[in-house]
C-alpha cells in the first residue's frame, strides 16, 4: 500500500437521519452531496490497494477480462467511506484512493488474474470470459471496528453475456484504529481476501 502524504485522517461527521423512518437511500444521497462539497486545508493522504499474491494455484484455461465495476455513490469515487451508524455513512476526511474505486478495483483484479495465469489485456479481444462486478459495500464500519468489502460477482461468456457463475462475495478485516492509514490497510486486507475468492470462483467454474 502506498501513501504519499503524512498526516492522519480524521472522521468527518456523518449526516444523521431525521427519524428512523428516513430511508437508507436518502441518507446515502446526503452523504454523497456532503462529500462532493468537502474541502481540506491540507493535501489528502493517498492510498493504493495491493494485489493479492496468495491466489489459488489452479489452471485457468481461458483468459478472463474484468469489466469496470459498477457502484453507486459514495463508492463511485476516490474517497474512503466509513459507516458511522446503521443508516449513516461519510467520507474519511484527508484520505483518498490513488484512483476512483471502480477503476482501482478493476486494475487490481486484472493483476490478480495475471498472477493466476488468466490475465487478458484490456480491449485485446482475447478473453472468452468476463467478470462483471457490482460494488455493494466497500467501507470501514467504525461502530464495529471492521472493514467490509461486499461484491456481487458474475462470470459471463464474453460473446453472449451468458452467466457462467455468480456469487455474492463478502470479506472483512479488523479495523480498530480510526486513522486513515489503519483504515486503508484494513480495506486492503479485506480486498485481498475478496480477490482470492473471485479467482477461486473463476477457477471452479471450469
Task: For this entry, give a set of tags.
single chain; 206 residues; alpha/beta; Rossmann fold; 9-stranded mixed sheet; 3 helices; 31% strand; elongated; disordered N terminus
Q: What name does CATH use for the topology?
A: Rossmann fold
Uncertain runs = 2-40
CATH architecture: 3-Layer(aba) Sandwich
- Beta-strand content: 25-35%
Shape: elongated
The end-to-end distance, rounded to whole angstroms, is 32 Å
- What's the total count of β strands? 9
Largest sheet entry: 9 strands, mixed
Structural class based on helices, strands and sheet pairing: alpha/beta
What is the average per-residue confidence, as pLDDT, rounded to a whole number? Answer: 79
**Could you give the order of the helices and strands?**
EHEEEEEHEEEH
Computed CA radius of gyration, to the nearest angstrom: 18 Å
Helical fraction:
25-40%
